[in-house]
Amino acid sequence: MSQISITVDGSTVTIDSEQRPTQIFAENKEIVVCKINGVLMDLWTDLKDGDVVEGISISSPEGLAVLRHSTAHVMAQAVQQVFPGTRLGIGPPITDGFYYDFDPENAFNPQDLEKIESAMRKIVKEGQRFKRRVTNEADALKELSHEPYKCELIGIKGGSTDETSVEVGGTELTIYDNLGRDGKPVWSDLCRGPHLPSTKHVPAFKLMRSAAAYWRGSEKNPMLQRIYGTAWPSQDELNAHLELLAEAEKRDHRRLGQELDLFSFPEEIGSGLAVFHPKGGIIRRAMEDYSRKRHEEEEYEFVYSPHLTKAALFQKSGHLDWYSEGMYPPMIMDEELHADGTIKRAGQQYYMKPMNCPFHNLIFQSRQRSYRELPLRLFEFGTVYRYEKSGVLHGITRARGFTQDDAHIYCTKEQMAGELDSLLTFVLNLLRDYGLQDFYLELSTRNPEKSVGEDSDWNEATEALRKAALAQGLELVLDEGGAAFYGPKISVQAKDAIGRTWQMSTIQVDFQLPQRFELEFSAADGSRQRPVMIHRALFGSIERFFGVLTEHYSGAFPPWLAPVQVVAIPVADTFNDYLFDVAKKLKAAGIRVEVDASDDRMQKKVRNAQMQKVPFMLIAGEEDMNSGAVSFRYRNGEQKNGIPIAQAIEEILETISTRKQV
């Protein structure tokens, strides 16, 4: 038998020419897939002399994606076993799991998922091998003639993107056969791969739920049934994930928003459009007021812009070219008709704004600007409207109407590096003030095929962002090619109380809009120069940040944000008047307080306050009234008795002013 020389994980080795990676990594059960010359491949792939092979662990991001995609195939096989005649859509891996779209005779129910899961366990136990087979378009169409959705994917081979890329893409069409113990195919699926060596390498999985989903995400296509699942390298990791999901469900801002009477989504208004109730309004106002105060301290100037504009503004900014699918359709206004109904004067197209930046450029452009005015920092709480598909809407964290805390900074090239550094420091400190502490930063760099501007500008801006990020002493993750077409970006990724990561603030350098709007300022030497434009959204949107904080605090907001900071609870009705007098003093000090004078017993009142997650309860009986004091009860159940009213007010105010959590 001939031998070949290859490199395995950095070391040169000589092997038999018929050996496969699955034999090379046989002693390391963690390796489930590999890279051959930098390309992710199955462990059953043939090797040739000079190949560079890298083992990929099941716990790595790439290994997890292969595990989850392979589990999606196992699920699809099980579905067609349990429900013969079901036609297949696509089954990609997603964050923490996978899904597969099906066209069954009847919609799936929870009992069906149990049957499918049971069939999956049998397939896993059988240890069916995933075998890759190269085919051509004609043969694939013939073989899969009973699978219309797969045949549609074959027609777009090479041009697939996103989820469909797990089925087709690249230069070859491939089908994966699942081989039984006799080596014969028991099930097949169109797929690009790669996959695990066999189904026995699926350690732990669970099917989560089913939902309706349009084929390939378009409302013009048939409605299919989507089953979501999750898969992990071990049962312990699966259990930990399920526990996290259970905790996340308790913290779900949509549920808490209803329980705490913060906001709602009336059907009469429409999907993705929230109304904030009085208690939610208090929290939102406190968030906005503190943000305004901090922006004033950082010398931002406040501006306002309308919700509508003529189409020409978004044509000039490029939004109609780049973002029209995410914008609401135009309204035709100011049209004049003749008596016979024919058009006398054509109307104008007006759009609801999806972004605030073009308006701020018009403010900059409204008069001549001097270098002495720069950096000019314009800030707006600007409400914008984006047409999000119904399937991606999620409470107030993914909505159709929301208010951005939007800032645009205009500066000279010489000022850019210092401005980015101070801006990132400001952003992180402000997020910390709201109670988020655990961050890492992501730097998105240029995609040469989808960008505009000079290389020198991109290099300078990217380096300035990189230095500003490193100066914070935080982990910096590179997102190569992930920048928008107009400039590089830093995004702040924040972890919440249960370890989930949320993208928060973004800072983007823009080379496109200053040119499109021909923005200029008078330089010190009298020349006209183009400013650098920096986009910055701290919260992203007020609504989304509200939702994130609701889940981070599980509705138990720190006193400075809590809609009701204190509930006064009398031991008996006799002490109502005393506590109303105490409440007056608290209100005079600026504390949000309510007196529970209901007919409920004291224990029920305490329970109600706890359910509403009120930070402080002030309880008073005869002894408290006679000594001008209260019993101080905290949200966690601790209590201090006989606290003088003035001392109680002082403690509450100190907690509010320092933004402490209790």
Note down, in words, how this protein is organized.
The strands form nine sheets. An eight-stranded mixed beta sheet has the order 16-22-23-30-27-26-24-25, with helices on one face. A hairpin with an 8-residue loop joins strand 12 and strand 13. The longest helix has 22 residues, at 61-82. It is of the alpha+beta class and 662 residues long. Helix content is 32%, strand content 28%. The chain contains 19 helices and 35 strands.
Return the structural class.
alpha+beta
Task: Outline the low-pLDDT stretches.
Answer: none
Q: What is the C-alpha radius of gyration, as a whole number of Å?
A: 30 Å
Give the spatial strand order of the biggest sheet. 16-22-23-30-27-26-24-25
How many helices? The count is 19
Task: Assess the beta-strand content as a share of residues.
Answer: 25-35%
Salient structural properties:
eight-stranded mixed β-sheet; 662 residues; five-stranded mixed β-sheet; 32% helix; alpha+beta; 19 helices
Outline of the structure:
The chain is of the alpha+beta class and 662 residues long.
Topology readout:
Elements lengths: L2 E6 L2 E6 L4 H4 L6 E6 L2 E3 L10 E6 L3 H22 L4 E2 L4 E2 L2 E7 L6 H17 L2 E7 L1 H7 L4 H7 L18 E7 L5 E6 L13 E11 L8 E10 L2 H17 L1 H7 L3 E2 L10 E2 L1 H20 L3 E2 L5 E3 H7 L1 H4 L8 E3 L2 E2 L5 E3 L2 E5 L4 H9 L10 E10 L15 E11 L1 H21 L4 E7 L10 H16 L5 E4 L9 E7 L5 E10 L2 H4 L4 E2 L5 E2 L2 E6 L4 H11 L13 E5 L5 H13 L4 E3 L6 H10 L4 E5 L1 H6 L1 E6 L4 E6 H13 L5
Parallel strand pairs: 1-5, 16-22, 24-25, 31-32, 31-33
Antiparallel strand pairs: 1-2, 3-4, 3-5, 6-8, 7-8, 8-13, 9-10, 10-11, 12-13, 14-15, 17-21, 18-21, 19-20, 22-23, 23-30, 24-26, 26-27, 27-30, 28-29, 33-34, 34-35
Helix pairs in contact: 2-3, 7-15, 12-13
